[in-house]
């Protein structure tokens, strides 16, 4: 947050944001952001049963299996984190 | 000439009172108007002697045992020394007490002798007189403020060779200095002989040079310049020498004035015996003579200060004059730096203070604990310290502590001595501050160190020290957790060595319970077991304290934790049979708090056991005991297990006999307690039982007692209703109430409330008595006293509903007319009540039936609106608003317009209720008259200066728009917006914010008409314009969500969006809210495409803002964003695949 705003009410907003997973900040990397997107996508599918059954039919798998796989994928949806440069 | 005529005198002089007046005038010259308030601001001047005992405390350095262990050395001034010192002090007190005892005995014996021998022979008297003159007369002659000649000092020392003499003590503790300013040098024989000697004329023995600098409790009072020997200043020379014929010669080159070394290293040791401070009176006298230099407000290196007190000069002497800094050592430089910062913090203006505070915090470790606390702590012990200064210094300690961390260890005791008194301060915030510091201190120093530092004070001889230590320990317990302190507490509570230690240990538990509340629950059993044995202690004080601690624990634990108290139930209940007086009171208190925790099925047994004692103690004459007994009775009655039958049979008869007597009404606290307890008893035994017992006392001859009865009846009836009251009781009750109301001599709320409550509770049953009641009111409305009239009007307000219920419209009409005639009332309080009563009647009878008719009533009220009194304004505006709402058609439009103009003035009122009522009235008036004229009045009012009036006008405009439909007002508002005046434009925008907030979804019809205006406002240079316009956009967007206004909303979004880089807090807040509202209307997808532009912008400031927007968006609609995330598959590299495969599947 810019320094002028550090002492104003907006700090609270900033803190509030930081308490939730999935929110970002100015130094977020591509990998982190996309990981969040993928997790959101997967959880959204798991949370909408019609979408689940659609995917299950497309995949030719049982709904339960698809659900399990989706949930498992959430662990590292975009693969392991890339090595730090510095 | 008759003889009784006044005799003529030959000379006349001024009358005595004139002379007196001149004398007073002369005295007024040196009257200081600030003296009184200054002493009130000073903490020490305000507090009790007990609080001020803090000045007599000795602080010693506490060794850092951990550090010592690390460095493998034995540090001086550690726990062992502290304990030894402690023991010596206790012994000294014991001896002193023994002396006093002996003295007292001697005196009593002497008295007996005198008594036995009524007329002592003359020679004996002479002898005694002579003896007296020899022993004390010589000393008496000396003024108390002249210091003792040194030979007497020597004398005292000569006598001082006893076992506990100063020398012996000093030998025992070679490193310690004892600044007991009020200590009697232990000259046993001398004291015994002259018991009346004041301690002022005793010289304390000279004290050896201390090894460590202790905190000097009574401020070092040495003036830096002896006033007889100081140099003459330029001003003084100017005053003395003639201005003409002399020339001021410049000093020869190379001359440097001698800089005297600072002399304040250890002021107390330089002065033998008492030193009278050069008080402010001496300084004031000097200032009056124009000789003494004024107190500086400008200090070199510090800048200007908000104030500077005479006392500050002692502490900050070193930085008051210019010095050559190159000659100073590093340490000295550091010291001066600290002093400057402290002076800035203590006396500076807020901005100066803030920067100084930050500096001292940042540099705390650099300065080191020693130099910092050596400067801060003496300042805190200054007797003339004021609240604000104390607050600031405590804040410094707090900040510094945080930085210093474990470096603080050697100073723990010193800090405690200064901070502990805050824990018993009467000011809540001071207590909180004290707790905060001690809790931080214990976190920094660690439990072991805190215990070893405070252990010696636990059985200190002085009760004050033990008390504050116990409180400090409870803070430590809450900071570091009860379990860590438990083993220590157990040991202390079982201490064999002294009962003081046990007493303090138990008190610590009590304080823990009081401070931590229900947080004691997990450790309740441990804490109770820790102190349980104290109930059978051989010391009565310990037993009492144990009972009090148990009471505190039970109170904190309520309603849980009865099983933890199992062990103490028996001793407590046995105890109440064994004890008397104070300890019985404590035991009863503990029982009172434990009872509510018990299971209902067991509680009745325990209550029966305790009731016997309670009833016996009903007779007590001790006030404290009375209060506790009442409290316990109240607690017993409140428990579930006790039956109404039991209360009626076993408690009530004795209770009423003992407590419902006139005497109880005289003491305020007893009065309250009795009323509360009786109300509690009524909850169990019913209204009729209690009211029936006391209703006759409504006709008692003592007014305070009648009031007590009335208050009780009010509370009982208010909580339980009057359905329980039978016909006979009803007659007695109403009769008694009317009697009590009529007979009151001081009109107050109690009688009024009582009357209102009872009549309202009886409802339709009061019909037979209404004629009598109303005639009482009518009679009192014409009373000579304004208070009585006011009360009668207030009573009308309360009774109006009931009178209507009973169908007595005739009476209401009569009352309405009489009140109308009284509208010329001159006392504003009474007038307010009369108008409110008229309003209440209008409310119940309705506007059409109202008598006097509305068309007569309202014109009479219009001029009253101009009354400046708040109560009158509020009552009038409420009534007018009511008429405007319900019966506007009875009044001609012209009258309403006149009222509109009057209402504008009310918008300036201080009270929010009045402003709100006025604003609402605009709405009602506009509704009946049509909005045009009212709106014109309000829009014109936007040009006035006062912000409050403008803001209220905008709200009123919005209300008018809401009641009459926005289409009636929008054109006028938009037209007004074209005015070149900034205030008017802002006002119009503000009005629109409220309009769209109120009308909600209706705004869909009006979006297009305001878009052009919003375009203008959102592109204005003025920040406030854009802010207010953003608020309008927010309300619009939320209102029209889902109503198909996306096109105009998109347009507005494009205008709002560039404002997201604003930094002013209010503006950015409004803009962010507008953007959030847009998410609702436009959908998160659109917003996401806006934010994607800047999430990875190269400029950090841009990224920060965009991420903030993204985060709000994400939190608002995380799930809905999923389909809108961009496809970033092409960014995949190595192991990281960013394709969202599930979204690419289709059937």
Shape of chain B: globular
- Distance from first to last alpha carbon of chain B: 138 Å
The percent range for helix content of chain B is 55-70%
Helix content of chain A: 55-70%
Sketch the major β-sheet of chain B: 2 strands, antiparallel
Largest interface: A-B, 39 and 38 residues
Mean pLDDT of chain B: 83
List unreliable stretches of 5+ residues of chain B. 137-199, 201-226, 261-273, 275-280, 286-293
Q: Kindly give the count of domains of chain A.
A: 1
> How much strand content do the residues of chain A show?
under 5%
Spatial shape of chain A: elongated
Say how many strands of chain A there are.
Answer: 0
Summing up helix and strand content along with how strands pair, one would put the structural category of chain A as mainly alpha
Question: Average pLDDT of chain A, to the nearest integer?
Answer: 85
Largest sheet of chain A: none
Number of helices of chain B: 55
**Subunit arrangement of the protein:** heterodimer
Low-confidence stretches of chain A: 1-7
């Amino acid at each position: 947050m810019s320094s002028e705003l550090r002492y104003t009410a907006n700090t609270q907003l900033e803190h509030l944001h930081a308490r939730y997973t999935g929110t970002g900040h100015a130094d977020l990397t591509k990998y982190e952001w996309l990981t969040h997107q993928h997790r959101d996508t997967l959880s959204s599918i798991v949370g909408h049963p019609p979408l689940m059954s659609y995917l299950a039919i497309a995949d030719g798998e049982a709904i339960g299996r698809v659900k399990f796989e989706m949930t498992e994928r959430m662990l590292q949806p975009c693969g392991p984190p890339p090595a730090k440069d510095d | 000439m008759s003889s009784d005529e006044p005799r003529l005198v030959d000379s006349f002089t001024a009358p005595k009172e004139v002379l007196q007046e001149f004398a007073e005038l002369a005295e007024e010259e040196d009257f200081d108007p600030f003296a009184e308030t200054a002493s009130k601001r000073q903490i020490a001047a305000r507090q009790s002697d007990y609080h001020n005992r803090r000045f007599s405390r000795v602080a010693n350095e506490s060794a850092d045992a951990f550090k010592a262990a690390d460095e493998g050395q034995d540090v001086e001034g550690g726990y062992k020394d502290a304990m030894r010192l402690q023991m010596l002090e206790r012994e000294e007190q014991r001896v002193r007490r023994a002396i006093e005892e002996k003295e007292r005995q001697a005196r009593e014996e002497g008295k007996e002798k005198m008594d036995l021998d009524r007329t002592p022979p003359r020679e004996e008297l002479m002898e005694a007189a002579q003896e007296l003159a020899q022993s004390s007369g010589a000393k008496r002659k000396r003024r108390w403020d002249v210091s003792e000649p040194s030979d007497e000092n020597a004398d005292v020392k000569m006598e001082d060779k006893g076992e506990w003499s100063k020398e012996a003590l000093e030998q025992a503790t070679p490193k310690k200095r004892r600044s007991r300013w009020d200590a009697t040098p232990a000259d046993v024989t001398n004291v015994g002989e002259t018991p009346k000697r004041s301690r002022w004329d005793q010289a304390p023995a000279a004290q050896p040079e201390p090894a460590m600098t202790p905190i000097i409790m009574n401020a070092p009072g040495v003036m830096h310049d002896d006033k007889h020997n100081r140099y003459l200043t330029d001003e003084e020379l100017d005053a003395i020498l003639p201005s003409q014929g002399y020339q001021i010669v410049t000093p020869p080159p190379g001359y440097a004035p001698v800089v005297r070394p600072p002399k304040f290293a250890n002021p107390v040791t330089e002065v033998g015996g008492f030193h009278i401070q050069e008080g402010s009176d001496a300084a004031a006298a000097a200032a009056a003579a124009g000789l003494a230099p004024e107190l500086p407000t400008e200090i070199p290196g510090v800048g200007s200060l908000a104030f500077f007190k005479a006392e500050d000069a002692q502490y900050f002497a070193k930085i008051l004059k210019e010095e050559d800094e190159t000659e100073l050592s590093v340490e000295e430089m550091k010291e001066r730096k600290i002093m400057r910062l402290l002076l800035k913090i203590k006396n500076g203006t807020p901005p100066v203070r803030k920067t100084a505070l930050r500096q001292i915090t940042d540099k705390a470790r650099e300065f080191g604990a020693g130099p910092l606390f050596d400067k801060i702590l003496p300042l805190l012990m200054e007797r003339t310290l004021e609240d604000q200064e104390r607050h600031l210094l405590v804040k410094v300690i707090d900040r510094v502590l945080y930085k210093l961390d474990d470096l603080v260890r050697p100073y723990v005791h010193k800090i405690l001595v200064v901070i502990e008194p805050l824990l018993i301060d009467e000011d809540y915030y001071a207590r909180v501050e004290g707790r905060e510091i001690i809790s931080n201190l214990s976190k920094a120093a660690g439990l072991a160190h805190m215990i070893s530092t405070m252990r010696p004070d636990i059985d200190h001889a002085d009760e004050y020290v033990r008390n504050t230590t116990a409180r400090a320990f409870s803070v430590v317990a809450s900071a570091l957790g009860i379990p860590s302190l438990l083993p220590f507490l157990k040991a202390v509570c079982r201490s064999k060595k002294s009962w003081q230690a046990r007493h303090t240990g138990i008190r610590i538990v009590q304080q823990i319970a009081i401070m931590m509340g229900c947080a004691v629950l997990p450790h309740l059993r441990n804490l109770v077991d820790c102190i349980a044995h104290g109930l059978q202690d051989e010391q009565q004080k310990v037993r009492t304290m144990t009972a009090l601690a148990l009471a505190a624990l039970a109170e904190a634990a309520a309603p849980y934790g009865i099983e933890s108290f199992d062990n103490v139930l028996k001793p407590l209940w046995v105890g109440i049979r064994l004890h008397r007086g104070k300890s019985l009171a404590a035991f009863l208190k503990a029982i009172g708090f434990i009872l509510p925790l018990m299971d209902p099925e067991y509680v009745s047994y325990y209550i029966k056991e305790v009731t016997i004692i309670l009833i016996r103690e009903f007779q007590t004459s001790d006030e404290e005991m009375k209060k506790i007994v009442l409290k316990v009775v109240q607690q017993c009655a409140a428990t579930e297990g006790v039956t109404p039958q039991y209360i009626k049979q076993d408690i009530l008869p004795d209770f009423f006999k003992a407590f419902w007597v006139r005497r109880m009404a005289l003491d305020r606290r007893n009065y309250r307690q009795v009323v509360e307890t009786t109300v509690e008893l009524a909850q169990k035994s019913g209204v009729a039982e209690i009211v029936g017992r006391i209703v006759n006392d409504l006709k008692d001859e003592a007014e305070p007692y009648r009031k007590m009865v009335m208050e009780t009846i009010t509370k009982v009836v208010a909580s339980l209703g009057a359905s329980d009251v039978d016909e006979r009781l009803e007659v007695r009750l109403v009769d008694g109430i009317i009697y009590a109301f009529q007979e009151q001599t001081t009109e107050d709320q109690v009688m009024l409330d009582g009357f209102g409550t009872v009549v309202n509770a009886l409802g339709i049953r009061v019909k037979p008595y209404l004629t009598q009641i109303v005639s009482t009111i009518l009679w009192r409305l014409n009373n000579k006293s304004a208070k009585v009239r006011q009360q009668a009007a207030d009573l009308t307000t309360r009774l109006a509903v009931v009178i209507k219920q009973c169908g007595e419209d005739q009476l209401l009409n009569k009352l309405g007319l009489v009140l109308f005639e009284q509208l010329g009332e001159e006392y504003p309080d009474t007038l307010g009540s009369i108008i409110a009563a008229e309003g209440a009647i209008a409310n119940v009878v309705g506007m059409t039936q109202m008598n006097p008719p509305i068309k007569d009533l309202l014109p009479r009220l219009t001029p009253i609106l101009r009354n400046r009194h708040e109560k009158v304004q509020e009552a009038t505006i409420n009534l007018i608003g009511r008429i405007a709402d319900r019966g506007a058609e009875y009044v001609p439009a012209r009258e309403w317009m006149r009222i509109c103009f009057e209402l504008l003035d009310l918008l300036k009122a201080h009270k929010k209720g009045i402003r709100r009522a006025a604003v609402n009235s605009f709405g009602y008036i506009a509704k009946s008259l049509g909005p045009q004229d009212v709106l014109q009045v309000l829009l014109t009012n936007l040009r006035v200066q006062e912000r409050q009036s403008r803001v209220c006008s905008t709200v009123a405009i919005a209300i008018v728009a809401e009641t009459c439909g926005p289409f009636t007002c929008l054109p006028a508002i938009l037209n007004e917006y074209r005015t070149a005046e900034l205030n008017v434009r802002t006002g119009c925008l503000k009005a629109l914010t409220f309009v769209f907030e109120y009308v909600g979804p209706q705004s869909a019809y009006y979006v297009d008409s305001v878009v052009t205006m919003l375009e203008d406002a959102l592109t204005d240079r003025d920040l406030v314009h854009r802010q207010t316009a953003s608020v309008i956009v927010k309300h619009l967007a939320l209102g029209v969500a889902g109503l198909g206004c996306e096109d105009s909303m998109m347009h507005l979004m494009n205008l709002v969006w560039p404002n997201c880089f604003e930094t002013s807090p209010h503006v950015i807040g409004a803009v962010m809210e507008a953007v959030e509202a847009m998410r609702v209307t436009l959908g998160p997808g659109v917003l996401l495409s806006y934010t994607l532009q800047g999430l990875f912008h190269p400029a950090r400031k841009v990224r920060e803002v965009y991420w903030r927007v993204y985060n709000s968006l994400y939190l608002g609609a995380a799930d809905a964003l999923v389909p809108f995330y961009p496809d970033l598959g092409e960014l995949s590299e190595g192991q990281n695949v960013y394709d969202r495969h599930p979204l690419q599947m289709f059937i």
